[in-house]
User: Fold these one by one.
Assistant:
Number 1:
Amino acid sequence: MNLYDASLARSPLLASAELPKSREGDPVFAEPWQAAVFAMTVRLHEQGVFSWSEWTEALSTELYKPGRRPDGSDYYECWVAALSRLLTELSIVSSSELEALVKSWKRAAEATPHGKPIVLDSDPLR
Amino acid sequence: MSEHRHGPGEEHGHHHDNHLTDMEARVKALETVLTEKGLIDPAAIDAIVDTYETKVGPRNGARVVAKAWSDPDFADWLRRDATAAIASLGFTGRQGEHMRAVFNTSETHNLIVCTLCSCYPWAVLGLPPVWYKAPPYRSRAVIDPRGVLAEFGLNLPAEKKIRVWDSTAELRYLVVPERPAATDDLGEDALAKLVTRDSMIGTGLALSPEAFR
């Protein structure tokens, strides 16, 4: 048990539509980035960066877009899109700034030899 | 398993040691912005993520190990072609990575390491623990595996050899720990409970059934 379990246990975000959960009611993630984006969203909501209704609206907009995979395996891709949209709407980050950072992280990864931590400063264009 | 989600123009990690998928890069980008703005603390995020580490995949890996302990034919298959043997139980990596199973014996103990990137068999082991992603673990596990294992409370006899396996983006390892003593009467489900995540990384051993009494 650590410090963050308690805040997580009562996060209203656990009630997000379609959230994949285990039998014990814990969120279930297929890949680490999914857990990371979930955790970031919980923290931001906790700090009042956005409200529950702002979050559910942003998420459901993404979840009900046409072209979703029928097996729901793109759930966390919708989650990432919803969080990105919300942060741009709140003027916390512009979409061009975000897209530039995405490219920068990819270049940084490609420029990093196996065995070394990937850090943003490794982007050769940065 | 579902198809992977890269667009047709995207390379897929076979020419580079390190490669972030679009979603991995996007989440990293969000983390960077939010950290710079002081809205999140990466350590706090890691701590939240760490609370899930045992919830997803380790049960899958434990079933693979329990089956290998109980079924010699499956163990052979796992030794020859771990990717196919593991897939036969329904566990496949979303990125189609190859798996290799390394078996602990009375002479040899196996330990797997990786990098900060993505070289971890999530499909069987779930989310990597925070220490596994930390640079000190990787560098020290290669230089002084015995010392690292001692820090995990695992003191192996000096005559036991330790082999360290460095995962890559294309090939990921699963340690098959030795079957604990006094488990002859246990079925696969009971055996799976003895298989911890750490025992499949090599930083621990399978539990003894007494742990449950």
Number 2:
Amino acid sequence: MSETSTQKSVVLQTRQLTRYLGDGANRQLVLDALDLDLHAGQTCAVVGPSGCGKSTLLYLLGLLDRPNEGTIHVQNREMAAADDTARTAFRNEHIGFVFQFHFLLPEFTALENLLLPMRKLGRWGDEEMRERATELLTRFGLGDKVNRYTNQLSGGEQQRVAVARALANEPTLILADEPTGNLDTRNSNNVMELLQEAAHAYGPSILIVTHNPELAQACDRLLTMRDGRFESEQG
Amino acid sequence: MKLNLFIAWRLLWAKKRAMGMSLAGIVCGVAFFVLTQAQTSGFEDFFIRTIWQTRGPLRVQDKYQASVTEMVARSSDGKGSFAIPLREGRQYVPGVHEPERVIEAVWNFDAVTGVSGVLSGNVTATSGFRSETAEVMGVKMSDHVTVSGVADQIRYGDITTFDEDPQSAVIGSILAERLNLDIGSELLLKNAGQSRRYEVVAIFETGVRDYDKSWVYIQQREARQLLNKMDGLTYLQVNLRDNDKAPQIAEQMKHALWHDVDSWQESERVWLEVFRALRVSSGITMSIIILIAGLGMFNTLAIIVMERQRDIAILRSMGYRRSDVAQIFLLQGALVCAVGTVLGWIFAAVLTYGVENLPIRIRGIFATDHFVVKWDPMHYVLAGVVTVIIVLGASYIPARKAARIEPGDIIRGTSA
């Protein structure tokens, strides 16, 4: 692969990404000048002991937090120093999140939860949005529950809706923070399959922070973190 | 906006019980605001109409003339001297002199729609029952009905033949009651040793106690005889096209007529100030109720923002801007404000209608047998404006706080 085509295939790139948390005497280095490249369609797991900086990294990559130093390029756009409006719009269009807890809005149905980011983006018409959202939920085995409020769904179903919501706007990057951390084995496997399927079917890059070794092993790459640095890499 | 409104509505509906309390406060605040304004304005307007229909919007009374004196200055050697005119002020001469000329001059004002000359003075009114002090009003009734509401104030009898019959007397209701007089009764008016007999042809009620217990209308020629005033009038009562312009027209007439001209706003200043103070104070009191409802709204929204931090963070992670989040919470306030205001208006209309039909007998400065209210759209607009300012003001702080939430901090805080 040529240098140019390699550059083109890189969805996410960080250089010298550094983050401190706390102030004064409590100031602590959480991420220590991290360099990371994530390619299109690639699934990457980040593992490591609690407090090693995995979640901090995830929120920085998701543009929910700002680094003290370093750069974050997503789709070749430098976003670390971008203003809040640009980062928010970018998040809406290019980044999908899956959290440990489903984080669905209970006042809305499963379908409406998917429509929230889609309507904000405004890429499709109303009817098309509904069709796409229904199709996604059907693909995830929730075709008969699209109009149920999310508190009327089981934990596994809720997490499947959350994954579907992350895919709703066809993002180029999905960031998942312990997506199976709150699920039993069967539902964990289910979510893992969905993420893998999504990566292959829709083509987004997926970065998963997890303690689940099976989920980590199923990814294309496995990065191990310790004390704010990548200690090793597999794949 | 449409999307944010949809989200706001859903979040609001989920907290409908807590919001219901704020809503009830706003509804009551708006309704009572409008009701108190309708009552105070109603009574104020009724009082003003009573003034127009009794003393008239404008009175031309005492003539005045500039009084000028001289100061003589002498030279130091005492041989030369000169006089310096000093203007000291005005000197009033009671009554209207050369009334025909003054009336003609009054009619030259375009704003004037009616003029009636009145010759008045104190007399003793006597019936077979007892005597009372009265104020005789010598008028030409065909003129006086154009500057007062006397035609509408007649409770018994008739005034159509008043100008033809020199023995006609029209008397106030309280005076009639005190003298035990009825239509057709004989009335004796006495002044300065002479007495003249009249027949009561009508009894009026203005609602103003001072007038109803003392006024007696008789023909002007009769009044001249009785009061022994062969020329001049006590005052001219003037009606205007636009009574609200009475002070400006009074000022113009003063300069043109060299008479003191008194507008209804000037003569009734004290009562008008009392009504204004009542209206403002009731408006402030009712605004405080709306303010308390607004504080309830602030409290509820502040709690919702606290409880919804995670949901706000989710919306932010999905691409909703800070301004969207602020708008969602402001819209919740706006929705409650809009629903509360509309329901408050409806409640206000129902209450106002109910109060309007409540019986209450008032006599003294006006006469009414039920509550007087004013149906004025401005009261509704004003209540709406006060509510919008207070409720949206109260919603702004929680909305701003919601917009400032950092999604990363919240999501990190809820992760295991």
